[in-house]
Amino acid sequence: MDQLRNLFRKGLFRGRYKALKYAAAMVFMVAACVATLGTLAFTSMVSTDQYQVTGLEVKQNGTGLDVSWDDADADGYNVFLQRNGERPKIYQTEEPRCRIELDVLDPDYRVTVTAVNRTGGLSAARSDNVATNKLEQTVETEKEKYVGLEDKTRPLEAEAHGRITYKSSDPAIVDVSSRGVLSYKKDGRAEVTIKVAEGDQYKAAEKTVPVTVYPDTLDTPRLTAADTTDTAVTLRWDPVEYAKGYTLRRYDPAKKKYRDLMEFKGNTVSVELPRDQAKYKLKATATVGEDQIESEPSETVKVKAAAAGAESYGGSHDLMTLDGSNLEVVAHISGSGGATVPQSMSHVGNNYVVSYVNHGGSTGALVTYSSQGERLDVSEMSGMGHANGSTYIPETGLVYTVKTHRQIRSAECSAYDPETGSCEKVFQLPRVTSGIAYDETNNKILLSKGNEIYVCDDDFNVEKFIWKKIRYNHAQDIGAYNGVAMVCTWVSGNTSYIDLYRISDGAYLGSYNVPIGEIESCFVDDKHLIILMNNGTGGLGDCILRTAEPIALP
């Protein structure tokens, strides 16, 4: 033992010991590498076979990319988005799809997807370069064109993707701020161009918006009377700049003021009217936003009445005479209380409603009779007026009565509920009127006075008129049936007529001679002519008559 100690002290085995130490270390390292490589080889094998990413698709959709691939049954996926060699952005998902929003659409992109398993193994699929295109865009504005009045402003309110600039074609008419606020300077027309700069996601865009600036008041129109004939006159006017319509006004001697008569669209520059004694004025109008602007009324145009020897269209020609030989009495009638004078008659359902007044017109009544002549109901009211004409409109369920004849110059109309007698509304008609009728076949309302017939829509707006001079006598009321107007005219004594006019072209069709007293009203019921007589002769008294046979209107 002592000898061995001496040998170690002298270093006899020192070099061999180092060699052994190095050899042992190398053996350990080799073993470790072999173990590691084996593990890697195993892991790689699992990732490649079980978690392979395939079927990768990348498509642009709007401002982003839709990425999808085949399901690899992995625990999750990492999606790498790289642009121009920059550091990639990582998106994690558990589903085999991913939506990536892009701030910039111009450059090329590359997408790589890796699957992740439980032990961390990876396999990847990489896309080709994905070229994204900037999107087209349109400039959205509140309106396609803008209107306004001088000394007013309003926002343009344009919307787009990108920086917006504005420019007016004529700042002296309309100026526009950098924020798109329009300032109306003076009347005229200009355009505002809206430009949107190109951005990271959208292309540049441009839109031009027309702007019209209206003055505070319109120019006064010039009204003239032209093409005057024996029975008609044409009123003409020059167009007024910026006017969207015109209102014709007629002087009402009863009210001692001008009243609106007709309204026209802006492209209308004339109207034909019956030639009667009247004074007219015209004003131009326009609606700008919530503002209504108009002109001062034109100078007064005076129209003289037709001469006594005016064209008579060949006078009247009788179609047939209606008297006791071909008329049957439906009912001998009477009023109610102080309302004892029959003035007009309406066809309400299957019944006949007669309007009565006293001679002063202050007391009135609606008395209902069946078509067999039975007296059914009485509704009394006050303030009806003379009620020279009346008609029933099924759509409203009301009887409309007018308050005028030769002595009463009024165009007031009162609408009554025929069942209760209550007055539902009172309004002004566009013309002084003695008769009123409703043509249910054509949904037209007819107004008459003398030989004038005005054809109106269901809001009482005058569409056209018919004028044929047959006789200058007292026109009581008007009836309507299937496009034919029937004007009830009392001449004097027992002489009365029913004059027929075709509504479509105004042609005079002939007359029924009714020589049995004062005719008040008429209509057609089941092709029979129904007539209301006031103080009829031959002992008939006040009565409702019906033709024994159906009539055939020409």
Structure characterization notes:
The chain is mainly beta and 554 residues long. The chain has 5 domains: 2-46; 57-131, Immunoglobulins (Immunoglobulin-like); 146-214, Immunoglobulin-like, CATH 2.60.40.1080; 223-303, Immunoglobulins (Immunoglobulin-like, Sandwich); 318-547, TolB, C-terminal domain (Neuraminidase). It has 2 helices and 44 strands. The strands form 11 sheets. Strands 3, 4, 6, 7 and 8 form a 5-stranded antiparallel beta sheet that branches. A hairpin with a 2-residue loop joins strand 35 and strand 36. The longest helix is centred in the first third of the chain and has 37 residues, at 14-50. The termini are far apart. Residues 3-48 and 308-313 have low confidence and may be disordered.
Q: Can you summarize the main beta sheet?
A: 5 strands, antiparallel
CATH architecture of the largest domain: 6 Propeller
Counting DSSP H or I runs of 4 or more residues, the number of helices is: 2
Q: Regions with pLDDT < 50 over 5+ consecutive residues?
A: 3-48, 308-313
Query: Radius of gyration over alpha carbons?
Result: 48 Å
Share of helical residues: under 10%
- Name of the top-level CATH class of the largest domain: Mainly Beta
Give the end-to-end Cα distance, rounded to a whole number of Å: 159 Å
The CATH homology group name of the largest domain? TolB, C-terminal domain
Sum up the overall morphology in one term: elongated
Mean pLDDT: 83
Number of strands: 44
What is the third-level CATH name, the topology of the largest domain? Neuraminidase
* SSE-based structural type: mainly beta
Q: How many structural domains?
A: 5
Determine the strand fraction and express it as a percent band: over 45%
